[in-house]
Design goal:
The chain has 328 residues and is mostly helical. The chain is built from 17 helices and two strands.
Length: 328
Amino acid sequence: MRVRPIGSLVVAAMLLVARASLAAPEPAKVVGPDKCGECHKGEVEAWKDTHHFDTVNTMHRSDRAQSIAEKMGLKSIKRDSVCLNCHYTQNAKGDVIAGVSCESCHGAAKDWLDVHNDFGGAGATQENEAPDHRKRRMEQSTAKGMHRPDQPYALAVMCFGCHNVPEEKLVNVGGHQPGSTFELVSWLEGEVRHNYASGGRNREDTPDRKRVLYVLGQMVALETNLRDLAKATEKNTFAVQMAKRANAARESLKKINEAAKIPEVGQILSGPGGSVELKLNNQAALTKAADDVGATARRFSASADGSRLAAVDPLLPPPSQYKGSPHP
C-alpha cells in the first residue's frame, strides 16, 4: 500500500480530526446511509450485516444499556445523550436515523458529497475520470471533511475515538466498559469490511495495506490513550485502563521496531510518546506527547509503502482473530 502525497488543506483537515473532541457526525450535515447507498449498494448491504447497523434497534433495549442510562441520569438513550456520540446517527431534525453508519466513520457528507460524486462533468464516470481530476477530487473531498480509505489516519482516529470510550463519567459512574484492546486490522478485516471498489466480491485488503494498517493502528492506539488519560481527573477505572492501554501500545510499537526499523516508529519511541509519564495530573505533557505521536502517525499514513514492511507480517492478526465474518 503506497498512499498518495497530500496537500496542505488535507493535512489541516486531518489535524482538526486528530485534535477535536469526540463527536458524532454533525447532524445538520448528515445525508444518511440511503443517500450513500444510491451508488455504494454493496457497501450498504455489507453494513446491514454488522453490529454497527443493529445498534439502532437493539442497543437501547438491552438491560446493560438501561442500567448505564439510569446511573448516568439519562431520560432517553436516543435523544440528548452521550450515547449518541458513538452508537447512533442523527439527522438535522435531531432524529436518530441509523446506528453506526457511513458518516460515523467517513464524516458527515453534506459538504463533500457533490465533490465526491463529480468525475469531471457530463459523461464522465469513475472508470474514465482523468487522473488529474481524480487527484483534485480526492484532495478537495478530504479537505471538506471526508475520511477516505486511501488516507487511513483519519479513519483510524474515528475508530479509536469510540472504541476507546473517552468519557470518564460514563465509565466511572455509568459502569460502561472502559473501551477495549482495539486492534485495527482484526476489526477492519472482519464484519465491517466493505471493499467493493473494484466490483465483485467483498475483497480482503492486500498484505501491503494490512501491514500499514497494523503499524498505524498501534500509533493511533498510543495517541488516543495518551489523549484520553490526559483528561482523567481521578484514579479510577477510566484512568487505570487508559494508562494500561497506552503502555500496551508502546510495547507493541517496540516489537514493531525490533521487527522492522520504521523511522516513524523509532521517532515515536524516542520522543515524548515513548517517555511521558502515564499518570494523573499530567495533562500538558500527555497532550503534547499525543500531539507528537499524532503528527508522526499522519506522516506515516501519508507516505507508507506496505511493500517494504513485510518484516511485520508475523505480528499481524491471523484471520481466526478477525472480529466477525465479512459480508460476501
